[in-house]
Amino acid sequence: NVKTEIHMALLRGDGQLFIRPIAVARAHRLPFTRVRTAHLDAVMRSEDLVVAVCDRAHEELGSQAPDRLHWSVPDPVPVGTDEAFEHALELIEDRVGRLAAAVHLSAEER
């Protein structure tokens, strides 16, 4: 088993945490030890795999993370419903699962 650290970082904004996505994530038993926001510059290291999950973040990153992945996930905030956050979580979970499987297979080939 490999331990992976996952950070959610902001490119802009006031750092406000939204209650709804935290509640949805906890309902799915996603493990949280700390819930806080941070600007990307505060957490990104050169060896990190960066995944932009919205189009605006992908565009604004520019050359900050040139090898990043981009997953276009509809922003649930404007809709503001639990269902919108559930849908975004489902999309991200599916893509993370496929990425983890691909990375695992790649590591076994070495």
Top keywords for this entry?
mainly alpha
Care to describe what's here?
With 110 residues, the protein is mainly alpha-helical. Helices cover 44% and strands 4% of the residues. A two-stranded parallel sheet has the order 1-2. Helix 3 links the parallel strand 1 and strand 2 (69-70). The radius of gyration is 15 Å and the shape is globular. The two termini are 16 Å apart.
- What is the helical fraction, as a range of percent? 40-55%
| Beta-strand content bin | under 5%
**Radius of gyration, rounded?**
15 Å
Spans of 5+ residues with little confidence (pLDDT < 50)? none
- Could you describe the largest sheet, including whether it forms a barrel? 2 strands, parallel
User: Can you count the helices?
Assistant: 4
Helix vs. strand class: mainly alpha
Shape: globular
Order of strands, widest sheet = 1-2
N-C termini distance: 16 Å
Assembly of the depicted chains = single chain
Q: How confident is the prediction overall: mean pLDDT?
A: 78
SSE order: HHEHEH
Number of strands: 2
